[in-house]
Amino acid sequence: MAKTIIAEGxxxxxxxxxxLNELGVSKDxxxxxxxxxxxxxxxxxxxxxxxxKVEMTLKDESNHVKDNKLAEEHKKYQKKEKVHLKPEELxxxxxxxxxxxxxxxxxxxxxxxxxxxxxxxxxxxxxGENAGTFIGYRGDTLNAMQSILTTIANKNLKTKAHIILNIxxxxxxxxxxxxxxxxxxxxxxxxxxxxxTLEPMSAYERKIIHNYLQKNxxxxxxxxxxxxxxxxxxxxxxx
Length: 239
What we know:
Elements: E1 4-9, H1 12-23, E2 30-35, E3 52-58, H2 61-80, H3 87-107, E4 111-117, E5 122-128, H4 140-153, E6 163-167, H5 170-192, E7 196-197, H6 203-213, E8 219-224, E9 231-236
Parallel strand pairs: 5-6
Antiparallel strand pairs: 1-3, 2-3, 4-5, 7-9, 8-9
Helix pairs in contact: 5-6
């Protein structure tokens, strides 16, 4: 028999999120029914906080497993069929970036850049005394700049170039910090048995958390919410 729970919250969204955390699954794994309360509120009860209740039932697990297998096969196919830049396209992308970055560093004192590449990515490193200004709060400015550089690099290209921007080794430092956080919170989840929901993160940072905890046999991770407020949930595995 499918597992069913009742979750409560001040809003429907909050109630659903609490239910997902309790079940330790993503939204696509459950059927949701909003329970209506027909009880009339008195004059005095109006001052009491409103409670929304939702009924959440786990979907057939066999279908979920089947869907997961199909998704994995699709990922393998996509990875196999990924198209890389041709040498001449890489040259065009590099020239586009160089032209922009030469002008950029000429207007900002005490910074320099370096461009390297492999089969999948073009890497842009920016360093210098004033480079940290372009990182922003938790890399917000850096990520915005990366999007701009990606647009510039892809001018006159048929195959999409993928750019990774790093400033003053921020990516490495942030990765180490997130892995430390994941390690600490996973221990809390194992000890208490309760799910932990992290603050909203970019897809890049969520992937760091997911990848790091893949090797942990006692917990599992999944994402909830909509961009740009999507969050990672760490849940204890039922062993």
